[in-house]
Amino acid sequence: MAHSEDLKLVVLGDSLSAGYQLAPEEGFPEQLQKALLARGHSVEVVNAGVSGDTTSGGLSRLDWSVGADVDAVIVELGANDALRGISPEITRKNLEEIARRLRERDVEVLLAGMLAPRNLGPEYAEAFDPIYADIANTHDTLLYPFFLDGVALDPDLNLADGMHPNADGVAVIVENILPKVEDLLAKAQSS
User: Fold this and answer.
1) How far, in Å, are 4, 50, 76, 184 from residue 128 at the CA level?
2) Is 161 a residue of the active site?
């Protein structure tokens, strides 16, 4: 029973948004969908998260992960690039290309930022951390500066590995990012 106001939102991400080691209803897209429906939004949230994915992987699967019927995309990629010490220039290039291609198709984008692990040194962090804000400014996308805001390094909100949010951690992420996602839906509605 589709209505004209129904929107399709794809979460293009890695294990952080794919629901790594969580029950099917506990992942980010599923909890986000529930929160949006509770706030009266008519939207389908699609989980296009692949554990272990880098920005290169996200770029290579962009066209089949984000179909022609998609109105908006949350791009949550880059954590695995940083964990592997991939050059920030490569991460930047891939995220730029993802944003450019989506905007070219008039798909609204919310970039979910990531911060480099501090053990990679200050030079790496200085090159990596500003990537998301720079791309958001250049490609007219919305920005949520740090996807794991309020969750990173909190043992109560992460799995035993200390890196992936547990169901409670995902709930915190959803609550924090919700205003930006509502902005994203409003932009998609009016475009």
Assistant:
1) 40, 21, 15, 24
2) yes
- Residue 15 is a catalytic residue: yes
Write the pLDDT tens digit of every residue in 82-141: 999 999 999 999 999 999 999 999 999 999 999 999 999 999 999 999 999 999 999 999
* pLDDT of 186 higher than 70: yes
Q: Is 0.85 topped by the overall pTM?
A: yes
Q: How far apart are CA 10 and CA 107, in angstroms?
A: 10
Catalytic residue list contains 164: yes
Please identify which of the residues 15, 53, 65, 71 carries the catalytic annotation: 15
The whole-angstrom separation of Cα 140 and Cα 108 is: 9
Catalytic option among 3, 4, 161, 190 = 161
Sign of CA dihedral 99, 183, 37, 166: positive
